[in-house]
Amino acid sequence: MIMNRFLSAQANRLRPTTIARYTGGLSAETGNFTSGQPSPEALPLDDLKPIFDSLLETEPALFGYGVPRGDSELLAYLSSLGPSIGLSGPIPERQIMITQGAMGAAHIAAAGLIDPGDVVLAEDPSYPETLDAFAKSGARIVGISSDADGVNPKELERLCRLLSPKVLYVIPHFQNPRGTCTSLERRRLIAETARRYDLLVFEDDPYRDLYFDEKPLPSIFSMAPERTLFAGSFSKTVAPGFRCGWLAGPDELIERFVNIQAQTVVALPTFIHRAIARFAGSPQFAVHMDAFRSDLARRCRILCDALTEWSGRRVIFSEPKGGMFLWCRLPGQDGVQVQKRLLEQFNLAVIPGTAFSCQGECLDCIRLTYSRQPIERLKADAKKLAQALGAF
């Protein structure tokens, strides 16, 4: 029986997620450079356990239905982050909602903003899963070339004049996949362009706190709060399995998005969110983040050193200053074929650059992650990967 006729136009637009296409079915023996999440050994389990134990003993009401905006204690903590993202004071709680990860924020924003045919501009390359969320609602995705400082401002202005886009999607810190940061000047230009061309910016910033040395820059949200949706996440800093993110923006939009969330999931897991609030508001969180940043910096150095020493200078990359990703160019190579050969011949998994391009470009690139594997395994697999790439 043919089922397509029962599916909605939206369901028929969906495709298998890009990341799952390259991460699914890998064995434990595979050298996995695909997954942008913390290593299990880096998770703050010892810090979380007493918090969970205490909540289990003293606050059983947290196991009931919560409210669609999210836990009050976590909302208060998120409000206090205003100065850390460049605001002069707290974020008003009416301008914040908790979501099911940053991806949950993207799906809710897409459902609330996008009509079929609306244009969404995005850095090219960019994170494909978020772009798929907008495409699911019928958006036309148009890529903008970018460099080490962010989107090309002249091209952004040209496309705004030509296409009258509704949304610009950017990842300003340690961008996925390139690992770059949008410069302060480009952030200001984005804010000015958004005002000039009636554009809404979706600022996806889950890697903001994963800096190695230099602290993050002020958010675009702090420069144009009436024109920006700011998405954050605890998936990278606490645990991805908690699926806890947040969205801040103009209160009129957030109110509508809360209604969408209420009609989609009814309520959020208050118990988990209260535990995150207690941990994030404690001195232990700062200690954890310092250790986690040091761990990521060490991992990044292991991978970069291996590529420099063992690849025969056949891999071109710029060492990132934070985050989880290393973007590599392989001059004269086809990234898709490199991905296949690495998996079939060396049992190493990477993602080809074309998977991240809105326009099918980045043909000679691959994206590597260094955050997931245990350190000793990373050392061995990084050398194996570098030697394989050097032999191609």
Automatic annotation (TrEMBL):
Name of the molecule in the record: Transcriptional regulator with HTH domain and aminotransferase domain
Keyword Plastid: no
BP terms from Gene Ontology: alpha-amino acid metabolic process
Cofactor(s), by name: pyridoxal 5'-phosphate
Keyword Transferase attributed: yes
Molecular function as annotated in GO: pyridoxal phosphate binding; transaminase activity
Domain Aminotransferase class I/classII large: from-to ranges: 92-370
InterPro entries: Aminotransferase_I/II_large, Class-I_PLP-dep_aminotransf, PyrdxlP-dep_Trfase, PyrdxlP-dep_Trfase_major, PyrdxlP-dep_Trfase_small
Domain of life: Bacteria
UniProt entry keywords in alphabetical sequence: Aminotransferase, Pyridoxal phosphate, Transferase
